[in-house]
Structure to design on (135 residues):
């Protein structure tokens, strides 16, 4: 939507499921990892870390359904399955990487704001948001 765009409920109805898919933490991580090239299921699962086999399967299926990635089965024993970003998936990398850079650049400011908020009288401290470090 362009700046100064008038709110149109129909547009929100179209955009909400898209943002729901790409705003999911697992989807973002999978898209980021596949930005490095095609990967097999177990490699993705290992590199994502903390995701169950079922959740990774559901995430990959949803991303494939929405056109962000392709699933290629190679006839071998056992069958080999590779996942790879489509052109649409690669175009998603641009804003996702930008958001990642923004998050890294602002992590300290966000953590400071959380500490200030949690020290306010009458507030119950929440568990801090941890920003993972890339290896």
């Amino acid at each position: 939507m362009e700046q100064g765009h008038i709110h149109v409920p129909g547009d929100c109805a179209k955009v909400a499921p898209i943002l729901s898919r790409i705003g999911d933490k697992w989807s973002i991580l999978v898209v980021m990892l596949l930005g490095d090239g095609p990967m097999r299921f177990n490699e993705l699962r290992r590199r994502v870390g903390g995701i169950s086999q079922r959740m990774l399967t559901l995430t990959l299926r949803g991303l494939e359904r929405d056109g962000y990635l392709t699933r290629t089965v190679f006839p071998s024993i056992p069958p080999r399955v590779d996942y790879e970003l489509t052109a649409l998936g690669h175009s998603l990398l641009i804003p996702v990487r930008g958001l990642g850079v923004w998050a890294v650049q602002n992590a300290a400011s966000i953590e400071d704001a959380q500490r200030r908020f949690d020290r306010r009288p009458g507030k119950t401290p929440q568990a801090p948001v941890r920003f993972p470090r890339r290896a």
Remarks:
- The mean pLDDT is 86.
- The first strand starts at residue 39 and ends at 40.
